[in-house]
Design brief:
The structure holds 2 protein chains of 2 kinds. Chain A is α+β, with helices and mostly antiparallel strands. In chain A, 17% of the residues lie in helices and 33% in strands. Chain A starts with 11 loop residues before the first strand and ends with a strand. Chain B contains 9 helices and 10 strands. In chain B, the strands form 2 sheets. Chain B has a 6-stranded mixed β-sheet with strand order 3-2-1-4-6-5, with helices on both faces. Chain B has a 4-stranded antiparallel β-sheet with strand order 8-7-9-10, with no helix packed on it. In chain B, helix 2 links the parallel strand 1 and strand 2 (60-64). Chain B is globular. Chain B starts with 7 loop residues before the first helix and ends with a helix. The chains are: A alpha+beta, B alpha/beta. At the A-B interface, helix 2, helix 3, strand 2, strand 3 and helix 4 of A face helix 1, helix 2, helix 6 and helix 7 of B. The structure holds guanosine-5'-diphosphate.
């Protein structure tokens, strides 16, 4: 065999999440994407054909493909974030499949936290509903760079342009209150495949592209911050082998900016300045490094640097403070405690904090602030003020998703209980 | 203009290296589970990259069922030396000899389940608090929801309802005394990614991944290697075929595929057009639709 094909070597990776109300057709849509892109294996197809038949369906239920755990199979609903993988000749895709019902805001936040793009499904018969607003709000809160609104089940509304237009304008009205940048709208039928991978023959009036076209072509290299240099030190490499005696490298993944050997840098929190001697990888030294590369930085001067420190540029430093304000999404059954103490994980740093104040809670359906009820329970979102024991080096989340995010950990149970977006 | 976009294999690599470093930083005594298969080869290669020029700061451990392909064992020992890593081997046979585990009987007997006991005992023996495994989320339905950092209670059990949310790249490895973590740095890789990476990095792999002549027999549509460890039914007979293996589990439950792939590039072509998942040829998952999930709850990987 000599038709060797190495084109995959420059393929890009797109991470996206799907949100929709129960029964809006999310599982069917994902099944359709997997099926039409030929990412389903024969044994998987056989298994779902068998199950479809047992359930008495006269069609192959593509939704079964994304069913995970036994509990879900029994209840017939998705209850947790599941990750799916597929590829086309253009790109690799990771789907964070998150369930749609009210009590699972936490799952959508989890799935959205690493996504470049979010698909929000709307049932054409129902239009924009409370949940749609919630999904859009979460997408904007988590600053997912690209948003695709799929108006699904168009087959059930006679592929009507009017229905579609009405839904688009009502979504636009609502989302004008949100911080969303790149929004597309597509009328689809997940069940029949219209405008998913192949262009619909039933909607001549629609001039836009298919969903797959967007997934394959949306511009994602700008999704990382390549301006503000942020290198959280993750691990200090000090070999014990004789031949590398004296080597001291700071390993980590670049969170922002572009680093080059010779750059003048400053180390936080000490404030010492030095220059970058080399940027090392297993393959050898590199001339430049940018997010999200994992590299090892060696510095010209011997200064004390450890995990949790940050290497930045002198003229562009993050905020360094004990106090910060954040939007928190609560993930745990035990509500957020005002004046409660939590462990924080922020970049590679661990600290302790106290929640000084719960400023307000957000009604995620109307986006109104609720000032009189400040109890933040599971799946609630609110604004809090935190004070930490040691200073954090952070940016606004909208400037950098890595240095602008942190999690709260319950000190008694060790569970991850809060997801914070720094403002 | 300069394109600041990483090709996907570089991005996956960077993510895995980040996770492996996070494990070394957050845990006291991590271990990397090494089976000699392609996933654990990739994982140990990533570990080597993560700490270069230092040695890998944790040992590799193989849970040897005694039913492994001899080719894999030879490869394992050679590779550990090659990457200058410490290798620990603990065997299921010892667990059986000491009465800790009981051999399955019958025609489809396998030692796959018994590995759990040996593994948990070894974790205890060395006081390992984190074990990295090469499992991928694309392998099986129950794995699609697995976290990178998977918390296990004192009994090594997994509770699918009670998993910690994992957001951004913030991993929470906090735990109580006696508890430990399973960590899956390759979660986001697919089978084809692994092969493409092996090609890109020119990694060596055990010979059984390539097409070779072997005595095999067919049961329930699956081609199995003939060995001393399998019992054949009277109506079954062994024949010689040109085969290769997509996974290197036990000889008792690894199905072979008829193949003429003799290089990694051939394998990539074959896998790209293949219509069966690699687990499709594993007998241990066929026992019931939720086989994997049930085993995971008991502490299997
Ligand atoms: N007519 C029609 N039915 C659809 C479409 N998409 C999904 N459905 C049906 O709607 C129901 C719910 O779909 P499912 O994918 O399970 O929804 P989920 O709860 O969002 O995952 C199923 O009966 C699907 O067959 C569509 O485009 N047209």
């Amino acid at each position: 065999m000599n038709n060797k094909d190495n084109s995959y070597l420059d393929m890009e990776l797109l991470r996206f999440t799907t949100a929709g109300n129960v029964d809006d057709g999310k599982s069917t849509l994902i099944g359709r994407l997997l099926y039409d892109s030929k990412s389903i294996f024969e044994d998987q197809l056989e298994a779902i054909k068998k199950t479809s038949k047992q359930k008495g369906h006269d069609y192959v239920d593509l939704a079964l493909l994304t069913d995970g755990l036994r509990a879900e199979r029994e209840q017939g609903i998705t209850i947790d974030v599941a990750y799916r993988y597929f590829a086309t000749p253009k790109r690799k895709f990771i789907i964070a499949d998150t369930p749609g019902h009210i009590q699972y805001t936490r799952n959508m936040v989890t799935g959205a936290s690493t996504a470049n793009l979010a698909i929000i499904l709307i049932d054409a018969r129902k239009g924009v509903v409370e949940q749609t607003c919630r999904h859009a709000f979460i997408a904007s809160l988590l600053q997912i760079p690209h948003l695709v609104i799929c108006i699904n089940k168009m087959d059930l509304v006679d592929y009507s342009k009017d229905v579609y237009d009405e839904i688009v304008s009502s979504f636009k009205r609502f989302s004008s209150k949100l911080e969303v940048h790149d929004v597309s709208y597509i009328p689809i039928s997940a069940l029949n495949g219209d405008n998913v991978v192949d262009r619909s023959k039933n909607m001549d009036w629609y001039q836009g592209t298919t969903l797959m076209h967007i997934l394959e072509n949306v511009h994602i290299s700008g999704d990382h911050n390549h301006i503000d240099c942020r290198f959280p030190v993750q691990y200090v490499i000090r070999p014990h082998q004789l031949e590398h005696h004296g080597y001291r490298g700071y390993a980590g993944r670049i969170a922002g900016g572009i680093y080059k050997p010779g750059d003048k840098v400053m180390v936080l929190p000490s404030g010492f300045s030095t220059t970058i001697k080399s940027i090392d990888t297993y393959e050898g030294e590199v001339k430049e490094a940018f997010a999200p590369m994992s590299v090892t930085i060696c510095l010209q001067d011997e200064i004390d640097v450890s995990r949790g420190d940050m290497i930045v540029r002198e003229n562009n430093v993050p905020r360094v403070a004990h106090d910060l304000d954040a939007m928190v999404c609560w993930l745990n059954e035990k509500p957020l405690q005002q004046n409660g103490k939590y462990t924080i994980r922020h970049t590679t740093k661990e600290a302790r904090c106290i929640v000084k104040e719960i400023r307000y809670k957000v009604d995620i359906n109307t986006l109104h602030r609720i000032e009189n009820d400040k109890e933040i329970k599971m799946n609630d979102i609110g604004r809090i003020h935190i004070r930490t024991t040691t200073p954090l080096f952070y940016d606004e989340y909208r400037r950098n998703r890595i240095t602008g995010s942190l999690i709260l950990i319950d000190e008694a149970t060790n569970e991850t209980v809060g997801a914070c977006i720094i403002i | 203009m300069h394109n600041y976009n990483l090709p996907y294999l570089k991005e996956l690599e960077s993510e895995s290296i980040y996770i492996i470093r996070e494990v070394a930083a957050q845990f006291e005594k991590p271990v990397l589970l090494f089976s000699g298969g392609k996933d654990s080869i990739v994982m140990s290669h990533l570990a080597r990259k993560a700490f270069y020029p230092s040695r890998i700061p944790f040992p590799l451990m193989h849970i040897d069922t005694g039913h492994n392909f001899p080719e894999t064992i030879t490869f394992r020992d050679w590779w550990a030396k090659e990457i200058d890593a410490q290798l620990i081997v603990r065997s299921v046979q010892d667990s059986i000899n000491t009465g800790r585990a009981k051999e399955e009987k019958g025609i489809n007997a396998s030692r796959n389940v018994l590995q759990t006991t040996t593994l948990l005992d070894a974790m205890e023996e060395f006081k390992f608090d984190a074990a990295m495994g090469g499992a991928r989320r694309d392998e099986e339905k129950a794995r699609a929801k697995e976290r990178f950092f998977s918390h296990r209670d004192e009994f090594g059990q997994w509770d699918p309802k009670n998993q910690r949310p994992e957001l951004w790249n913030l991993f929470n490895g906090k735990k109580n005394q006696g508890e430990h973590f399973r960590i899956f740095p390759l979660s986001n890789w697919t089978e084809i990614d692994i092969w493409q990476y092996i090609a890109q990095e020119k990694l060596p792999i055990p010979s059984i991944y390539f097409s070779h002549e072997r005595k095999v027999f067919t049961r329930d549509g699956i081609v199995y290697p003939f060995s001393d460890f399998v019992m054949m039914k009277p109506e079954e007979s062994a024949e010689t075929m040109s085969v290769r293996f997509r996974t290197v589990g036990d000889m008792t439950c690894s199905g072979a595929v008829v193949s003429f792939a003799s290089s990694v590039d051939d394998i990539i072509l074959e896998v790209s057009v293949s219509r069966v998942t690699e687990r499709g040829s594993r007998q241990d998952d066929k026992r019931s639709e939720t086989a994997m999930e049930d085993r995971k709850k008991k502490g299997y990987f």
